[in-house]
Amino acid sequence: MKTEKEKFLAGEPYQIMDPELAADETRSRRLCKILNELDDAAISEKDKVIRQLFGSVGKDPYIQPNFRCDFGYNIHVGDNFLCNYDNVILDIAPVTIGDHCLMAPHAQIYAAYHPYDPTQRANFIGLGKPVTIGDNVWIGANAVILPGVTLGNNVIVGANSTVTKSFGDNVIIAGSPAKVLRKNMPKN
C-alpha cells in the first residue's frame, strides 16, 4: 500500500493532512522564511537557500520577499529566474519554469486543486496537475496560472490575467480567462 507521500509524488489523490507531507511543508515554510529575511546583499546565502528549497535551479536565480510555496522540491527553474515581490507557487505537482523567466509582483502559479466531490473535499483530499512554463516568459503582476497549464516560449501574460488553459510559443495573452491578444514575434 502506498504512503500518502508516494501518492502525492505519483500525482494521485492524497490526504493533505498527512504528517509526513506536513513535515515537508514545515521545512518549506522555514526555508521561505529564511530566504525572505535575507538582505539583498546576501547573494550567495540566498542562492544556497533557493537551492535547498527548490528541486532544481539553473544559474543566477533571484527571488524577492515574500516568496511562498508548499513544498519547494517540486519547483524546477532554469537560468536567470527572477521572482519579484509577494509571489506564490503551490507546487503540489511539478512546476517547471524555463530559462530567463520573470514573475512580476503578486504573480501566482497553482499546481494544486481540490476534488469536485464535496465528500472528498471534506475529507481533505488533495490533487495536483503539473504546470510548465517555457523559456523567456514574463508573467505580469497579479496573474494567476492554474493547474495543468503549459505556456510555450516567449509568452507574455498580461497583468491581472487568469490562465486557465495552455498556450503555445510567441503570444501575448491577457484577460480572465486569458486569451491571445496578439502574436509576439521575438527579435533575434
From TrEMBL:
Residue span, Maltose/galactoside acetyltransferase domain: 5-59
Q: Name one Pfam family in it.
A: Hexapep
- Keyword hit for Repeat: no
Q: Which SMART domains match?
A: Mac (SM01266)
Cite the EC number. Answer: 2.3.1.-
Write out the entry's keywords from A to Z: Acyltransferase, Transferase
Alphabetized GO MF terms? acyltransferase activity
Q: Which family does it belong to?
A: Belongs to the transferase hexapeptide repeat family.
Name the record gives this protein: Sugar O-acetyltransferase
From which organism does this entry originate?
Companilactobacillus baiquanensis
Tell me the classification of the organism that encodes this protein.
Answer: Bacteria, Bacillati, Bacillota, Bacilli, Lactobacillales
